[in-house]
Amino acid sequence: MSAVRFLVADSSPAIQTFTQQLLVQFGVEPGWIACAATPDAALTLARETPPDFVLTDSFSKHPIDGMSLVHEVRQLRPDLRWAMTSAADADRLRDVARAQGALFFLGKPFTAADMKSALSQAMHTWGHEHPHAGRFARGTRKVAASTRAVASAPVQTFKMGDAVEYLGVRDTVRHVIFRRGELVVQLAHTPGIVSADKLRKL
User: Is the pTM of this model over 0.85?
Assistant: First the structure.
């Protein structure tokens, strides 16, 4: 079975967790889903493994906003499918997102049922076009307990700006990322991505 990669970019751990759990219920393998709390972190993940589908917040106050993130990822994956959520200027952004090909747009706050319905419809639409995504359009399935445990894993014990110690050196958390079932971070003064279990919060 070919992997279909998903990237969820949202500053809310709750939205990351719920979306990941919902995707798993649709039949997506947990390891195919990456989560990031900022557009910069999302772009780092996309450059490592270009996703087939991006669900992003608008990140209207970030230097790289949601639309810019989508544009950058499209350079890596021209057939990218995507969707957006936003709490800011929802009416204007909805029109922009639809004009740019978003499969759906949800204004915040939205309910769990809203997200489930929108994602279900998006999977159905995408399933007619993508050779491997069609299997996700058949609806949710019962998830085994072991899978649920993996899907529920992104409990953020660190946040941006936290002071931490890594290999005996003081550093600061720059980005927090949930990737392939593991919580990892980017640090301000350490290159690369570091597993969160190797850090000590100060």
Answer: no
